[in-house]
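Re: the 79-residue chain
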Amino acid sequence: MALAVVQDLREHRATASVQEIVEFETDVLSGFVLARSAAGLADSTIRSDVTNLEQVRAWFGRPLWEWNPPTPTRTSATR
């Protein structure tokens, strides 16, 4: 088993511009469409999936990867 050196890149990267975020979202969505198409899904299914993703994105008003799931709280059911 080999070990690798891992570095946190968030500290060294400059903040992305609006244009870079738009381009990244376009690339991710294109990859999603290509993967669904390669899996043999119908065009109408892919179109529906893309529409749903665009609606969620518009509703949040910012890139989806910026949203983190809420931190779970400890309840009596988990004790």
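The two ends are 37 Å apart (CA to CA).
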